[in-house]
Automatic annotation (TrEMBL):
One of its GO terms (molecular function) is magnesium ion transmembrane transporter activity. Mediates influx of magnesium ions. It comes from Lacipirellula parvula. This is Magnesium transport protein CorA. The keyword Transport applies. The gene is corA.
Amino acid sequence: MSKKSKNGANHRARQRKRFDHTIHPHTRPGTVIVPEGALAPLLHVTAYGPDQIVEKRNATIAQIRELRNKYPVMWIDAVGLGDAALIEEMGELLGLHRLSLEDMATVPQRSKVEDYPHHLFAVTQIPTYNGDLCLEQVSMFAGKGFVLSWREHAGNCFDIVRKRLQVTNGTTRSSGVDYLLYALVDAVIDSYFPVLEQLGEVFDELDDRVEADSEPACIAQMRDLRHDVRQLRRIVWPLRDAIDDLVRSPPEQITQETLIHFRDCHDHAVQIMDTLENYRDAGSDLRDYYATSISNRMNETIKVLTIISTIFMPLSFIAGVYGMNFDAHESGWDMPELRWKYGYPFAMGLMAVVALGQLWFFRRRGWIGKGKQRGKSVDEG
């Protein structure tokens, strides 16, 4: 197995382990159990209003408590789920329901949007693709005066939102918590489009490879691609439905103006879902085409071997006849050709004529080369 194949197999094993998480049946509901190997949390706080904005990196709970209610909107962007005590302390400060904190710490979660008494909770996955599909869970809370986003690992998914916040007269700065939640959800959904574009390029490249030469490695890559598409469908499908439910039955935290923007998010989710459906069909078609190509190549090989065997059958018969041990001196009927001085050249010539005659017949029938029959069928088509 090549080094690339081993790395791909190890990555898929890690992804399976990530999705095969253990449910803790004997714990109290709302218990926060952090994932194994999770990073220590880092807090990036952005508090802003129409006229001013304040940012604090590596913030503490005390600084967040100090900034709260001083600005119309406070965005807490946390990275790392490795501290259960900090998660619970953050939940107490912001009044987050313990079940939502449990869902946030349980990786991975099914994409969903839930309306709790004092806040909204949304959770989904952020994809990246560099030859292997990587998924990172992101949870978002929206309450009175705050938005909390909590990711597994650092990334650039929310950089576009930070840039918008730097624009003094921008829509994001002048809007409320609900619009910031929309902006974060929209950034997550938009992160799927580069992944889909990369997957499309891989499909096209694989299609060309299968058409040019059906390599055995193609089937393994097709299996990995189809697995990645299925995994993305399992994420986007409930996300699309969750946003649709949010649009149809909006909670009190979402204004009518922001609701229009969430409809755009729903349209993007539908577009992503349609693209994944097309990729799934393309993967099935590519697998069928690969199987057909392999079958055709095998049939061509069998045809060549069959033609060779067919040519040698009469030659073997002729050689067998003249190889019989009859004594030509005992009877004039016992192979008189054996006493003929041209007997051997006659036998070889007969074999050559039979072989060439069969080749001419096979070619005329279109079984080899470009015979009359095959050319005629092409012209008629």
